[in-house]
Specification:
The chain is mainly beta. It is built from 2 helices and 18 strands.
């Protein structure tokens, strides 16, 4: 229990200071007109199956009940690198981002109770927009460039607990603290250099609270189902100790099924609903689905899957859509005490005249000391 507490402190302090992500470039264009781009609460293993295994994966911070089956102290971390082509009205921009979106630790307190702590990305808010326009000054039309940037993210810090009520029933609950910050800049540069450049800077801090719960059922040998729900209150934005905005955050619910006809074959599927329309005008409720499989046991399984659904924010009058396919594998080392997972995802998003195509490379490390 002492080791669990020490690692939990490190897990919780890190993202509180960094916002849960390292901004290397620019995130999705579909988060600019809203609160940001929602993160994916999935480990590399789960994401390599299209997210299908996420509700059943104790190392994916989507649900809590699977933590009940963690046999010993376990920690995992994940890094991703995305290569994005954004097409806006025939103009394509190549963008890149590197992220450290997930870190978790879990350990058994006693025979029936497991606790876990960690963070994942709740919203990405890193982007850079440049606009060209003109205005009438002293009777002359002056051209200028406006550049608006946001650099940062909002992290989801989770403290969770789970236990088995019986051989077939596991129950879990979690407390979520949302924390992060962004550095936002607005700058106007005139083509005529005799005009001064105008710039405004702001450091915006975010906070919020949420709760979640999940129930895992073993309905038959090799067949499990799970249901989960989550409610977050409001995202509070603060500038210089003054509240600048408060935005309602979504209610969420989902479920999944995992079928294992044999020890080396697993199939999974899941669906989820998120009520983002509560965030205000221009936000949409979303549905998402995923399906995938893992074949092979032992040192190097093969994983694949697909997912699709909607995005909560976009430039058009309807919710943008997304579709992705993924593959991956893993390798065990040190007599199973260390696991290295890798994956590749191909994603396409469309909506409001904007198209994004993204390649993402995923690397995850799991350690059981």
């Amino acid at each position: 229990m002492t080791r669990v507490a020490r690692v939990a402190v490190l897990v919780l302090l890190g993202p509180a200071l960094t916002g849960g992500a390292v901004a290397a470039a620019q995130d999705s264009q579909f988060g600019i007109r809203g609160l940001g781009t929602p993160g994916r609460w999935e480990s590399v293993r789960s994401r390599s199956t299209g997210g299908a295994f996420a509700p059943f994966d104790p190392l994916s911070p989507l649900t809590e009940a699977p933590l009940a089956d963690v046999p010993q102290l376990t920690a995992n971390a994940m890094e991703s690198a995305s290569y994005r082509d954004a097409d806006v009205s025939g103009t394509t921009s190549a963008l890149r981002a590197t992220r450290f979106p997930l870190l978790n630790v879990a350990g058994r307190v006693n025979r029936r109770l497991v606790v876990g702590a960690g963070f994942t990305t709740y919203l990405d808010r890193t982007w850079d927009v440049t606009l060209r326009d003109s205005t009438l000054l002293r009777g002359a039309l002056e051209r200028y460039t406006d550049e608006v940037t946001s650099d940062g993210s909002i992290a989801d810090l989770r403290l969770a607990a789970a236990g088995r009520l019986s051989r077939r029933i596991a129950l879990g609950a979690g407390l979520h603290l949302l924390a992060g910050s962004t550095r936002e800049t607005a700058e106007r540069r005139f083509d005529d250099t005799t005009f001064h450049t105008v710039q405004q800077l702001a450091e915006v801090r975010y906070s919020g609270v949420g709760v979640s719960g999940s129930l895992l059922l073993g309905v038959a040998p090799g067949l499990s189902v799970i249901g989960w729900a989550r409610a977050d209150n409001r995202l509070r934005a603060t500038v210089a100790d003054t509240t600048s905005a408060e935005t309602d955050l979504p209610r969420m619910a989902g479920g999944g099924m995992l079928f294992s006809p044999g020890p080396s074959v697993r199939f999974g599927g899941s669906v989820a609903w998120r009520g983002w329309a509560r965030a205000g005008a221009g936000a949409f409720d979303t549905w998402s689905w995923s399906a995938g499989a893992e074949i092979g046991s032992g040192r190097m399984p093969f994983r694949f899957g697909a997912r699709g659904g909607q995005l909560p924010f976009g430039p058009g009058p309807t919710a943008p859509t997304e579709f992705a396919v993924a593959v991956g594998s893993g390798r065990a080392f040190a007599q199973g005490r260390a696991l290295l997972d890798v994956g590749v995802e191909r994603l396409e998003r469309r909506g409001g005249g904007l198209t994004e195509r993204v390649w993402t490379a995923l690397v995850g490390l799991t350690v059981r000391p």
